[in-house]
Write a structure and sequence with these properties.
Largest sheet: 7 strands, mixed
Helix content: 40-55%
Order of helices and strands: HHHHHEHEHEHEEHEEHEEE
CATH architecture of the largest domain: 3-Layer(aba) Sandwich
Bound molecules: S-adenosylmethionine
Number of domains: 2
CATH superfamily of the largest domain: Vaccinia Virus protein VP39
Distance between the termini: 65 Å
Shape: globular
């Protein structure tokens, strides 16, 4: 394993925190474990040389490789089931009703390898009524890790991952490839657009959402970055829109103007049309 000097460690921690908000200040061994392979692949024997190349690299490829190594992409289908039950029973029926003419914009922010946005697409299908028009439901699924997004786009997973889904959904939405793997049904992809995106970059004025899932992302941020992200998420929510965070990253009333309606579910005030 290639060891980090204190100076190299501090530089990587600062870079990851400044650019992506990810706090790695207690993760020296993790960085060494994950980045050694990358250095070896590039024929380098020190992080100093890597950092030199990183700062000179105009393509963004080296930063991308480092992000792929150092982000934690752990996720699974139907994670935090209470959220998906609330979405199916309460939140999506309400939003679909409200958005039946202008459509519905949903953002899976920090979607990792795609399990979250595909579970969401399954829930949407479950909410489909004979008269409902899901054609104008758009899910934007974003992540900073290109490697995670490539897997998400492919939509193929080890067979074991299917077990987290209700058995009926496994039958409806999962297509077996062989004994070891399956792919998600094509119709689920219809709603989803994948995009590489740093959550901390200022959003475009046109970006507005009725529902945002930003779950298990803020746990890797320190307090000030978390606050910056909360402001961004609040600003892109439509009035009456919902934000879902992970149950391990609940927002306090001092941190957000959004109203908590269920555990880890927040809503922006609904402004009535005059
Ligand atoms: C632990 S996964 C959570 C995935 C999914 N939301 C869930 O709850 O299962 C966190 C994801 O956030 C992404 N992430 C971390 N910092 C980010 C940033 N600044 N911009 C965009 N994505 C980021 C990571 O690449 C990773 O895929």
């Amino acid at each position: 394993m290639i060891r980090l000097t204190e100076r190299e460690f501090a530089e990587i921690v600062k870079y990851m925190s400044d650019v992506y908000g990810i706090n790695l200040d207690k993760k020296k061994v993790l960085i060494e474990c994950r980045m050694t392979k990358l250095l070896e692949k590039l024929g380098l024997n020190s992080y100093e040389k890597y950092l030199e190349l990183l700062h000179r690299d105009k393509t963004g490829d080296l930063a991308g490789e480092m992000v792929n190594c150092l982000t934690t992409n752990y996720t699974y289908f139907y994670r935090e089931p209470d959220h998906f039950r609330k979405l199916q029973e309460i939140i999506l029926p309400e939003l679909l009703e409200r958005g039946q003419y202008r459509g519905l914009d949903i953002w899976s922010a920090g979607c990792s390898t795609g399990e979250e946005c595909y579970t969401l697409a399954m829930v949407l299908e479950e909410c489909r009524r004979p008269d409902s028009n899901l054609g104008n439901v758009r899910i934007l699924a974003t992540d900073i890790s290109g490697a995670a997004l490539a897997k998400a786009q492919k939509g193929e997973y080890p067979a074991k991952e299917m077990e987290g889904l209700p058995p009926e959904w496994q039958m409806k939405y999962c297509r077996k490839i062989n004994d070891r793997s399956f792919r998600v049904a094509e119709e689920l992809k219809y709603h989803i657009r994948f995009q590489k995106k740093n959550l901390l970059e200022p959003p475009a004025p046109s970006e507005k959402f009725d529902l945002i899932l930003c779950r298990n992302v803020m746990i890797y941020f320190d307090k000030s970055v978390r606050q910056r992200l909360i402001r961004i998420l609040e600003s892109v929510l439509n009035s009456g829109g919902y934000l879902l965070t992970g149950h391990a990253e609940l927002l306090t009333s001092a941190e957000t103007v959004l109203e908590q309606v269920f555990p880890a579910v927040y809503r922006k005030e609904l402004k009535k049309d005059k």
